[in-house]
């Protein structure tokens, strides 16, 4: 095997278009199909961030999402009002709060995960076994891309 070829700009554009199309294709397996009401993207992003980093402060969530503290604080308040998040006093600083999912949010995440799993299974079933295996093997790289800090 020779040296890996450099990635061209057209390769990058193709990957970006493909990733966007895949996300749109998978969205049909999301909240509505799980029997949950549609949510604004800002609320979905905050819920995702809290699920990935439970016990974060509003400031930490804002940094992770590259959003303004005030916007994240407003979104957290809406999600608290809907029973999806809760504020807990920070044990190290009682003036500060840490954000956690409620049981309802964890339950809803389980429903959404199950719907996405079914949707991905349906998409993979439309491929050859070798194609499906290639995508499965790429999952760790895709996970790394999704967790890389944005410049």
UniProtKB/TrEMBL annotation:
<protein>
    <submittedName>
        <fullName>MarR family transcriptional regulator</fullName>
    </submittedName>
</protein>
<dbReference type="InterPro" id="IPR039422">
    <property type="entry name" value="MarR/SlyA-like"/>
</dbReference>
<dbReference type="Pfam" id="PF12802">
    <property type="entry name" value="MarR_2"/>
</dbReference>
<dbReference type="GO" id="GO:0006950">
    <property type="term" value="P:response to stress"/>
</dbReference>
<dbReference type="InterPro" id="IPR036390">
    <property type="entry name" value="WH_DNA-bd_sf"/>
</dbReference>
<dbReference type="InterPro" id="IPR036388">
    <property type="entry name" value="WH-like_DNA-bd_sf"/>
</dbReference>
<dbReference type="InterPro" id="IPR000835">
    <property type="entry name" value="HTH_MarR-typ"/>
</dbReference>
<dbReference type="GO" id="GO:0003700">
    <property type="term" value="F:DNA-binding transcription factor activity"/>
</dbReference>
<feature type="domain" description="HTH marR-type">
    <location>
        <begin position="12"/>
        <end position="144"/>
    </location>
</feature>
């Amino acid at each position: 095997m020779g040296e890996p070829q450099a990635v061209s700009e057209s390769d990058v554009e193709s990957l970006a278009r493909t990733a966007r199309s895949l996300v749109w294709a998978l969205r049909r397996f999301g909240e509505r199909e799980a029997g949950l009401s549609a949510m604004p993207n800002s609320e979905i992003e905050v819920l995702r961030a809290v699920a990935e980093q439970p016990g974060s402060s509003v400031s930490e969530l804002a940094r992770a999402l590259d959003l303004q503290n005030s916007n994240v604080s407003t979104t957290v308040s809406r999600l608290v009002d809907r029973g999806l998040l809760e504020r807990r006093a920070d044990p190290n600083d009682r003036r500060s709060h840490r954000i956690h999912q409620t049981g309802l949010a964890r339950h809803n995440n389980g429903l959404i995960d199950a719907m996405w799993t079914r949707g991905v299974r349906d998409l993979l079933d439309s491929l050859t076994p070798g194609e499906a295996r290639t995508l499965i093997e790429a999952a760790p790289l895709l996970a790394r891309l999704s967790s890389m800090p944005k410049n």
